[in-house]
Amino acid sequence: MYPIESVEALNDEVTRMVVRAPDIARKIRPGQFIMLRIDERGERIPLTMNDCDPEAGTVTIVFQAVGATTMRLATLKAGDALLDFVGPLGNPTELEGARRACVVGGGLGTAIAYPQAKWLRDHGCEVDVITGFRTADLIIMEDEIEAVASRSIVMTDDGSNGNKGVVTEPLQRWIDEGAGYDLVLAVGPVIMMKFVAKTTEPHGIRTLVSLNPLMIDGTGMCGGCRVKVGGEYLHACVDGPDFDGHLVDYDDAMRRGVMYRGYEGSAREAMAKRLASEARDCDVAAGLRAADGGACGAAGDGGRARRAARGRITLDAATEAQLAAMEPEKAKKVRAALEAKAAREAAAAAAERAERAGAGQSAADADDASAARAAGAGGAAGAGRAARLARADEGRGE
């Protein structure tokens, strides 16, 4: 078993988890990933390393609760343990020799781009970092990125952070200004990486992209993670996950990425119902807690249902005054009912978000072709609509 040392919500959708795995922590390098399984009935999923501490023996992963397993993973807390945590898998990113680099992270891909930017900085490379998100509320790891970057910029689709646009816009501008990059590294939605590669190709800049196709075993046996690179099919798990961005067949990667979308949606819906059921089960525990001061660890989306069921909720002054005026036993029961209601609402919100995530991804898939046409007509900036529709795949956390 692999103990979970800490769990932190980076935003409403994304969780950072530190897992104790000393053997992996000593060996894993930027770009490599692990395969985990929550319990004996769980599925295996790949997640790329976000950070590691060889001395402490820990590996940090960052993931978005968009599928059945990551939804379940987000309900775990410090003190819980994972059944399987296997790695390091894949090849480390080939960063040696770079003197001037730009690292581009899209959405959750920012968490995977961070250790690569950090490695480059630590080995004498001047690093610029560009990250992109749908909206300011989803921005993650801004302080960590600024700490390792020579300069950095965060773009948002809606401009809610003051920088409206897509990641290729500052990349093109910095290239035109003479940045002199000898390496560009892109991690994020496939459509984003496609347009980053299109931006660098005319300038002959070495460009690496990190691919996260469907993956089952992570050792090259199943063939599920095949990607078309330079006209031949390679395995992302053993040949990658990083590839020459100018040789990747992105359209083929996007087609393969949606092959099981129907099944994924069904699994997501089933998990949302399961988490809602667990939140309802917590109603009874909440009542018991009110009577004896115990605790309830209900599962919930991004930890919100768990927090609502586990601790005292914040009530307005008028309600608190009403509770204070009640008999103590009655006040405990009323507070327990309010806490249970909060748990149910959080679980319902989790189910609704999961359903929206599935619908949003389907919309993005439908617009891939039109996005490609827009890019052809308008260059890198023409990828705007596609980037706004792109969603971070569960995959290895990108």
TrEMBL record:
<dbReference type="InterPro" id="IPR039261">
    <property type="entry name" value="FNR_nucleotide-bd"/>
</dbReference>
<dbReference type="InterPro" id="IPR019480">
    <property type="entry name" value="Dihydroorotate_DH_Fe-S-bd"/>
</dbReference>
<dbReference type="Pfam" id="PF10418">
    <property type="entry name" value="DHODB_Fe-S_bind"/>
</dbReference>
<dbReference type="InterPro" id="IPR017927">
    <property type="entry name" value="FAD-bd_FR_type"/>
</dbReference>
<dbReference type="InterPro" id="IPR050353">
    <property type="entry name" value="PyrK_electron_transfer"/>
</dbReference>
<feature type="domain" description="FAD-binding FR-type">
    <location>
        <begin position="1"/>
        <end position="95"/>
    </location>
</feature>
<dbReference type="InterPro" id="IPR017938">
    <property type="entry name" value="Riboflavin_synthase-like_b-brl"/>
</dbReference>
<protein>
    <submittedName>
        <fullName>Sulfide/dihydroorotate dehydrogenase-like FAD/NAD-binding protein</fullName>
    </submittedName>
</protein>
<feature type="region of interest" description="Disordered">
    <location>
        <begin position="350"/>
        <end position="398"/>
    </location>
</feature>
<feature type="compositionally biased region" description="Low complexity">
    <location>
        <begin position="350"/>
        <end position="375"/>
    </location>
</feature>
